[in-house]
């Protein structure tokens, strides 16, 4: 049970940190990068942030790689 509790505590701290930093994170422009797909119609809006997801995946992969090393 010890590893699972450590993971949950770490995820909780990470989520709180992201929540506190959200005003500054939102100013970075994530979600409006070139390559993000936005289709807007009269009563419909479809948003698929392809580039943002790739960028976040790369950043998270590097962070996990650094912690495992």
Name the shape in a single word: elongated
Q: How far is it from the N-terminal to the C-terminal residue, by CA?
A: 23 Å
Global structural class: mainly alpha
Range of helix content = 55-70%
State the total count of DSSP E strands: 2
The major sheet is characterized as: 2 strands, antiparallel
Strand content: 5-15%
Work out the count of structural domains: 2
SSE sequence, one letter per element: HEEH
Radius of gyration: 16 Å
* Spatial ordering of strands, largest sheet: 1-2
InterPro entries: DUF2905
Keywords: Membrane, Transmembrane, Transmembrane helix
Protein name: DUF2905 domain-containing protein
Organism: Thioalkalivibrio sulfidiphilus (strain HL-EbGR7)
SSE arrangement:
Elements: H1 2-25, E1 37-40, E2 45-48, H2 50-68
Antiparallel strand pairs: 1-2
Could you describe the 3D structure shown?
The protein contains 2 helices and 2 strands; from the N terminus they run αββα. A two-stranded antiparallel ribbon has the order 1-2. The longest helix is centred in the N-terminal third of the chain and has 24 residues, at 2-25. It is mainly alpha-helical and 69 residues long. It is elongated, with a radius of gyration of 16 Å. It has 2 domains: 1-30; 31-69.
Question: What characteristics describe this protein?
Answer:
69 residues; mainly alpha; 2 domains; two-stranded antiparallel sheet; 2 helices; elongated
Can I get a quick summary?
The chain has 69 residues and is mainly α.
């Amino acid at each position: 049970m010890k590893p699972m509790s450590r993971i949950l505590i770490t995820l909780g701290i990470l989520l709180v940190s992201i929540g506190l930093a959200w005003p500054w994170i939102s100013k970075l422009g994530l979600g409006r990068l070139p390559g993000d797909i936005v289709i807007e119609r009269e009563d419909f809006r479809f948003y698929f942030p392809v580039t943002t997801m790739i960028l976040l995946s790369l950043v998270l992969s590097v962070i996990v790689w650094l912690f495992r090393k």
